[in-house]
Every structure is written in C-alpha cells, then in structure tokens.
Design goal:
The chain is of the alpha/beta class and 496 residues long. Helices cover 35% and strands 23% of the residues. The chain has a six-stranded mixed β-sheet with strand order 1-5-4-2-3-6, with helices on both faces. A six-stranded antiparallel β-sheet has the order 18-19-20-21-17-22, covered by helices on one side. A five-stranded mixed β-sheet has the order 8-7-9-10-11, with helices on both faces. Helix 1 packs across helix 2, helix 5 packs across helix 11 and helix 13 packs antiparallel against helix 14.
C-alpha cells in the first residue's frame, strides 16, 4: 500500500503506517534538503506533544547533525507559534516543527520553514520545496559526512516569547487585571505559554486540559469539533463566564466562544482591527486581508469604519507569501488562524518584519479589546445575527466529468438568479474558490435590500470533494438558495 506523506502544505501521515526505518529515511532526506538545497548552516528543531514526536525529533536531530547542520533544539513540547517566534530570532536558519495540528492523535507530521520564515510547501521553497524533498526521499539517499558534525544548542524560548508577545500587544501593567476567562487547550502543547502569559498580565484564567498529552483524552485537538468542547461547555454551565478561548493541538488556531457561541474569526478581526491599527503609523496605509468566506457584513463594517481591507484565498503559506510580497499588515482565515507582520525587534521601529503567526499575541490583543470595550462583543453578536448562514457542507464526486458538469450546472443556476461569478480579487489574484454574489456592491456602501453569497471550492486536502456555504440577508432567501443547490447535487453523497 502506498503511503501518502507529502501534502500540499506540509508532511502529514498516520503514525501506525510509517516504520522507524521510514522515519529515519525521511529525516535523512530533510537534512540533505536543508544542507544542500536551502544551504543553511543551522536549523531550529521543535515538536508538540504528539505521540511519536519525540522519536521523530531524535531521528531528525541525528540526521541534521550528521549532515553538518547545527541544531537549535527545543527539547520540550511547544506550540507552533512559539516555534515561529524562535525562527524570527534566527532568520538565517531553517526550521522543522513536528506537529499534525488539529488532526486526530494517530497523525504525525511536520511544518517546514526556510530562511526568513519562508514556508516550504509543495511547489513553494527552494527547488520546489516538498517536491524536492519527496524526490530525495524516493532516491533513498544517505548522508556522506564531509567535515564536522553539527553542534546541538538546547533552547528555552518560553520567557522571551511571552515577553515579546506581551510587549508587542502593548499590554500595560495591570491593564487586564480583573478579567476572568476560561481556556481549553485540549491537551495540546500551547497551554503553558498562554496560561503563564495571561496570569502575568493579571487575568484570572481557568485552564482546562492544560497538560500536553498525545493521547488527547478530551477528544480530537480540534475546537471546531463539538464533542471536543463538551467538557468546556459543561464547565461553563456550572461556572458561567462570557468568554471561552479554545486552541488546537499545536496552538496556532484560536476559537472564540462568546456567551456560548462561536464568534467567527472575521468578526474577531473586526473587533481587534482598531487595536492592530493603533500599533501602526497611519501613513503606512495598513491593509487587513479577510478570508474569501468572510461575511459581507464584516467587510461593509470595515469600509464604514474607513479601514482598508482586501480578500484572500485560503492557505497559510499562500496568505503569508501574499502579505510578505505586498506589505499587507494582517490577515485572518475563517479556520481561526490569524496573521501579522511581526517585527524582529520591538525596540527598533525600522526592523525588518515578517508575515507569520503568533496566537498568543492575538489572544492578548483580544483580551485588551475585551477589557476596554466588552459591549463591542455584544455588538458583534448582534451583527452576526443580522444575516442567515448555511454552514459549509461537502459533496463527494469521484468522476471528473460529472464534477465538471455539476460545476457548470451550478454556475448557470446562480447566474440565472442574477448572481455575479467572482474568482479573482480586484488585484487579479485568484481566490482559490468561486463566489456567487447578488445584491452586494464593492463593500464600500452599507448593505441594503436582499443579498446572498454562495461559496464554492474544490478541496485541496481531499480528492473529489466540493465544498459549499451560503450566506444570505434573511433565512427565507438563504433556504431558497439551499433548495436550489440541493436540487443540483442531490444525486451525490453529501456531508456536513
């Protein structure tokens, strides 16, 4: 049976299907790639708390040092955003983070970073990134020692990471004093950093499932799965507080639960955008990117507040690249990932900045907004309730011909209703999806009258899977659009 190791954006696999010999072969391929192709002299090596991560880290440590690479080693489980911070402090190094993010516990994987925090993906990075690594793996190359063995430098970046994030967010002494929140870490690897940072900032935080445990006894480390937050919701019933923050297995995702319901990430960004922009020189003309699935009511609100925004396709590496190339300030994905142009030095305003992720920074910024204006969160809830949403569902179609036929049929149906078909941004960048929009202008005027938006996208992570989501100005219109779509796809297998 062929085992798929190399994905579009990272390396990810079921641990039980990969032998120790294969792990060592993969480690060798990665060490050769960083030494010979990326041509760095050192790498940062870190892991989260997944089962098998320690053995994989040891294999990578041996391979990298044998290849002559110095290794800056994070020996204990950390979150991916702390890893990115470490990479920010050593921009000329490569970086390897052992994690499978929000996937179930039987998965293991790796996120790869090149010089200057460049994400290494399939087709992205020196000589095609993962394409080249896959080629090296297939050749079953071995390391021929030439020169010295690399040195190992044991790192501990927790304190400096917390200090950096707190200072950048501009949290003054006692500014968050009196706040009481609940955090659920789902036994991932980010609990220690967040809990310590919040306590140092004066927050009374209750940390659920704090200890890193690769068996994930509370459920999959995915806060988007209702069962995974059942313990947290049970706790809130007995100890009610308005705000619950939930993090995935490696802590690069933050779900915000306000008064018992998720506040969509685009709405969270709308709240904190004022505080983000306050950190910038207005003359820099900062712009914030929103996920292609973001609600038009959020974009209209941004326009009414005279804040510059754009829309962008999904994909962490793609978003970071677009931000870096164009100097965009920040971005948000509806999968609860947040991005920002992080400076290498807070003290030096002119220091080079890099587009990456730091969920602790965004956590602190969110709590700053909550401390200053808690009613703003209630206003976001009212805005969220001002339109109707049919949550994303999937359609499984195995035959390419039938898939293309369905896409044409849906397009004709939507355009027959007067909807505009949009596949690119105003700047000409692909959205990686199709939007069918009616009753929506450019977003710079208040929404008036009936409107709807249908999101359509072919999955990049799963073959033959088509995804849909509907937003509409009211329930009746939204359900009528859903009925039309259902009639088009009723013969195919569908899942929520």
């Amino acid at each position: 049976m062929e085992i798929q190791l190399f994905r579009s954006h990272d390396i990810r696999f079921r641990r039980s299907l990969v032998s120790q010999a294969m792990l060592e072969q993969l480690a060798t391929s990665l060490a050769l790639y960083y030494r010979q192709v990326v041509q760095v002299s050192s790498v940062i090596l870190a892991r989260d708390g997944r089962l098998g991560g320690q053995a994989f880290q040891q294999a990578l440590l041996c391979a990298c040092t044998q290849a002559g690479l110095d290794v800056h080693l994070e020996p204990n489980p950390i979150g991916t955003c702390q890893f990115y911070y470490h990479c920010l402090t050593r921009k000329e190094s490569g970086g390897l983070m052992i994690t499978a993010s929000h996937n179930p516990g039987e998965y293991l994987g790796l996120k790869l970073v090149g010089r200057n925090l460049e994400m290494i993906t399939m087709g992205g990075g020196p000589e095609g990134g993962l394409e080249k690594i896959r080629s090296l793996f297939g050749e079953n190359r071995s390391i021929t020692r030439a020169g010295k063995v690399g040195q190992v430098y044991v790192a501990d970046t927790l304190a400096s990471y917390i200090a950096y994030s707190t200072n950048l967010a501009g949290i003054g002494e006692g500014e968050l004093q009196g706040l009481s929140i609940v955090c659920d870490f789902l036994h991932g690897s980010f609990g220690s950093a967040v809990t310590r940072a919040l306590q140092c900032s004066g927050v009374e935080v209750t940390s659920l499932h704090l200890l890193s445990d690769g068996t994930f006894p509370a459920g999959d480390p995915n806060p988007g799965m209702p069962d995974s937050l059942s313990d947290a919701r049970a706790y809130l019933e007995k100890h009610p507080v308005p705000l619950l923050l939930a993090y995935d297995g490696d802590g690069d995702r933050m779900d915000v639960i306000f008064e018992g319901r998720q506040l969509p990430p685009s709405f969270v960004m709308l709240i904190i955008s004022t505080y983000l922009l306050s950190l910038e020189d207005p003359a820099s003309n900062p712009l914030i990117l929103f996920d292609v699935k973001a609600s038009p009511v959020v974009l209209a609100a941004m326009a009414q507040q005279k804040k510059k925004y754009g829309i962008v396709q999904n994909g962490h590496a793609i978003i970071k690249r677009i931000m870096q190339e164009n100097g965009y300030l920040s971005a948000v994905e509806e999968s609860a990932h947040y991005f920002y142009q992080f400076p290498c030095s807070i003290a030096d305003a002119a220091s080079k900045r890099y587009a990456t992720e730091n969920t602790l920074f965004f956590t602190l910024l969110l709590l700053k907004a909550y401390a200053h204006d808690p009613l703003r969160f209630k206003a976001m809830r009212m805005l969220q309730d001002s339109f109707f949403r049919v949550r994303e569902w999937s359609v499984q179609i195995k035959e390419t011909g039938r898939m293309q036929s369905l896409l044409r049929s849906v397009s004709a149906c939507m355009q027959g209703l007067g909807a505009q078909r949009v596949t690119e941004t105003e700047e000409g960048r692909t959205l990686g999806a199709t939007l069918y929009r009616k009753g929506l202008g450019r977003g710079d005027t208040p929404l008036q009258g009936p409107w709807f938006q249908v999101f359509e996208r072919l999955s990049e992570s799963e073959d033959n899977l088509l995804r849909y989501e509907i937003l509409a100005s009211d329930e009746q219109l939204g359900l009528s659009i859903q009925d039309l779509l259902t009639s088009q796809i009723s013969e195919f297998s569908q899942t929520t």
